[in-house]
Amino acid sequence: MTAAGTSPVAPWIRTRLRTAPAAACALALLVAVTACLAAAFPRALDRYEDAGLRRSFEQARPDRTTVQVYEPLLGMGLEPADLPGILHADTLAEQYAEILTVPRRPLVIDPGQSTYGVRTETPQPASDPWLPQPSGNPVRMTLVAQHGLADHARLRTGRLPRTDGSSGSAGTTWVEAAVSAETARTLHIKVGSVVHVPGAGGAPFAVRVTGVVTPRDPDGAYWSTQPLLRTPAMARIPGGGADDAYWLGALLLAPEAGPALLGTQGNPCPYWQLAPDTSALHSRDLDRLKSSLAALESGPGLQRIRSFTGASADAVTGFDEVIGSYTRLRAGIGPLVAVAAFGTGSVALVVLTMAGGLAADRRRAELALLRARGASLRGLGGRLLAETAVVAVPAGALGLAAALLALPSGRSTPSIAAAAVVTAVACAALPLRAAAAHRLVRAHGGREDVASVRPSRRRTVAELTLLTLAAGAVETLRRRGASGDQLVASAPVLVGVIAALLLIRLYPLPLRRLARPAGRLRGAVAHLSLARAGRTSASAALPLLALLTALTTAAFGGSVLAGVHDTRDQAALLAVGADARIEVTDSALPSGLPDRVRRSPGVSGLTEVSIAYGAQSTQSGQSVPLAGVDVATYAELADRTHLGPFRAGDLKRAPGTPSVVPALASPTVADTYGTRPFEVRLADGSTVTVRITLVRDRTPALSGTDFLIVDRGALSGEAARPNVLLVTGQQVNGRALREATAEKEADSVSVRLRSEERGRYVDSPLQSGAERIYAAAVAAGAGYAVLALLLSLLRAAPERTALLARLRTMGLTRRQSRHLLVLESLPQATLAAAGGTLTGWATIRLLSPGIDLTTIALSSTQPLGTSPQLQTDALSLTIPALSVLAIAVGVAGVQAWWVGRRGSVRELRVGDAR
Predict the structure, then answer these.
(1) 277-314: per-residue pLDDT in tens?
(2) CA angle, 259 as apex, 253 and 262 as ends, to 5°?
(3) C-alpha–C-alpha distance, residues 571 and 754, integer Å
(4) Would you tell me how many other CB atoms lie within 10 Å of the CB of residue 460?
(5) Which contiguous run of DSSP H or E holds residue 144?
(6) Which of 376, 390, 813, 834 counts the highest number of beta carbons within 10 A?
């Protein structure tokens, strides 16, 4: 304490910040950027997971996601006099208001799309002759009196239906209704038309159409929970033939006309539709959302609903199935994202720790002097902590604020916690490193370079512990896949750490062996550079640890992204069979189409194929898709696409058996028919006798597990006409192909491009968001690796500058100065680059059996058929390693050039801090 009773901490902090403002600003920038990235990660995760959940909700359609509550009245023993009151609009409105209070959060109901009403459970036949009657079957109509028709529909012609004293009562024999524009067009209904359905007393029940409406939001839950309200559907009679079909339609009654449905034979039933609010759906609430849905379907929520309505009320929804499908997709993608998060987070923490450690090393003399003058270890650590906190805490808060502003949606607690961890590590790194280095007061320390320091027992035990953890994590990942606990997600990082520790132990050995031969060479540059590299401080192990961990994470992440791209490309190739596919299913291709396609831009090859999807074996009666091909061109296509390549001569008919055609078959077909000849009947009635001579898992013309490929020349003239063109080329122009097929005689021709098919495999923001996060994690890891290398080089910059100044006075040239610094930095950079490449390769090879890229690469509705595994990507392995070498050499060269431009007076002053 001073005489004034004030603490000397504040003057210490101001003095230190004024002494080294550049270092303080660099630390603040590092903490701010790292805190921003750490805080942004959980919010970005929430953002794309929520978007994926909403996309799954939208794709499922409201008929599956809406909670539908209904109360069947038939067979419940109710008095006929009570039924009109149950179906009255006021009664239903009161019950609807009570039901809206039942769902528990996070299930939030959208009142704008929710509704209630009365409908006939059994569609009623309409015998009017002017209605379309396919196969002679009458149209069946569902009568619906749904609340809110005026708010959700635009009147196209006529007027909305109304009720009066007679048309809205239970005993009426007629009622007014509206129809959707699609229903009017399909069923030939106009304003003024009268539709008759069977009445309850035997006499027809008349429905007079007063208006035609169009939905304001046709995809909303109001119209799409019961799609029949807006769009009629073709249905088939159960047990009937293929032609026994009839139309289903809906007549939209006035909301108050519910009791009038008692005059029909359709068993009127009250219902309430609860549409979930998509804006309130969050992936983090899935467990609670499942619980809320379960309570509505078969729990206390349903009991409350029955207390408002009746004992027969029930609730159904397919929303729980949608949630289950989304959960499986997230479970497949989440572990891969966790691997990226662990990797980049570990590298960032290592860099923060390294920044504090390097600061402690540079201030070693200052801190040793303070300890020698009586400073306690606790007091010294407190001052260093306060000095660092003044810079790190505001920087961490600034980074957190930037992340929250950049990503306004998502949870705040994980982001705050992540930024706090980053700030805490940044604050504690310098004090802890200083406390460990100066726990004992020493006048002079011994050599602490990597060539002389021997590992302690504690270090050996710690390294063996990490080795055990890494081995366990890798084995777990290989056995269970990436769906295990957090230890499994950290397996790539642990492997990189173990490799770094191993290389640090081996690093001195080649330096010692090279030092003596270098000493016998002419000139002092080589010997001096090796001696300098060998006398690098032992704290240089931390930059090497950061570089290896970052390179391993970058190699693993880059291989994942490359594997995702290759998996989608392979899946698209399997689906299309070439770069483009032109096909017509109901007839042969137009005669002039192949020539027009050959002349299209980007087309380099064309293979004509005759596919008979309905071919059947006369022996078993089973369907076997058969493709007739030109053997020579098809063999070239199979070889180019690597889809079941074969030699063209293997499908040529033998001279002694002209009636038996050699065939290429899938394994399933080969197991069924063997190698004996069998007969196949084609769609035109002709037959061909084939014998399986080749077996391949896949082929360009046909996908699936059942196929036969034969020479097209062996087929009849009708069956040999091509109906598929497989197009190859480096830059196939889809627009040009579609223009070539847009002739009058080619109206039914479909064109599919491999590039367009590849884009269809990403159908969820969960997949694209995971890819973006993975790419960002790889980029951030690479950036931290570069930062670690720069910090390591900057840490030794004053010492190197002083050394060059002294050697320049002894006659060292500028060229030799550059060579000295470059050769001095090469051993550690080469070690990091080579070690990172080998470690990344080994990590991918070790962990690939447990990594399945199917979920993140493909949509759930478009499987590949095989499980693609992680493969090494050459660019992901070599580019980061070469970048490390280039940066190390570049920084050394720039430093030598800068020292050569400056004078040497300052560096040669005796007693100046180096």
Answers:
(1) 888 888 888 888 888 888 888 888 888 988 888 888 88
(2) 100
(3) 9
(4) 11
(5) strand 139-146
(6) 390
